[in-house]
Every structure is written in C-alpha cells, then in structure tokens.
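dumping this here so i dont lose it
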C-alpha cells in the first residue's frame, strides 16, 4: 500500500506493514496527526494482484465519507466532523 500525505506530520500506517501469510489476515489502517489536527483524508488503496479484500469494517471515528470504501474498492475520501489527532480508519480482512 502506498500513501500520500499532505499534512505536515500526518501519517497513514497499515498494521501489520509487512509479512508472509498463508491464509486470510487482518490489516488496520490508522491515520495519525502526530499532534497536528486534521479534518479530512483521502486514501487510494492499491492491492497487488495476489491480494483481495474479504471484509471491510469502518472505524468509529466521526468520519463522514464522500467516497465510501467497500471490499471491491477500499479507497476512500471524506471529512472529519471534529478535529482528530489519531484514529483507526478501517480494519481490512
């Protein structure tokens, strides 16, 4: 997964960020402002051809989606109704 961040110190992290798996596994996406507040996010998720999203669970973060992610297209964009410094965006299986 590649991330493009425009806020000064904000990061988007996938956890785990790497590994070898012989079956289904879960990845958490977390956006962290590292002390800076932010009120919007846009992420384009690009999976390699040998991966597929089985399930997509949205985090409880006050995020209002302009583009709602799905198992077929996990990319998303939206605004945050309040300012956040960190939140768990999604859990992908």
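and the seq i came up w/
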């Amino acid at each position: 997964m590649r991330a493009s961040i425009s806020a000064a110190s904000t990061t988007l992290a996938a956890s785990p960020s790497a590994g070898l798996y012989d079956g289904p596994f879960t990845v958490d996406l977390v956006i962290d402002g590292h002390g800076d507040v932010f009120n919007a996010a846009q992420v384009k998720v690009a999976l390699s051809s040998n991966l597929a999203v089985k399930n997509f669970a949205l985090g409880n973060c006050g995020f209002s989606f302009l583009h709602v992610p799905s198992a077929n297209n996990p990319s998303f964009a939206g605004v945050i109704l309040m300012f956040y410094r960190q939140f768990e965006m999604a859990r992908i299986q």
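The radius of gyration is 13 Å.
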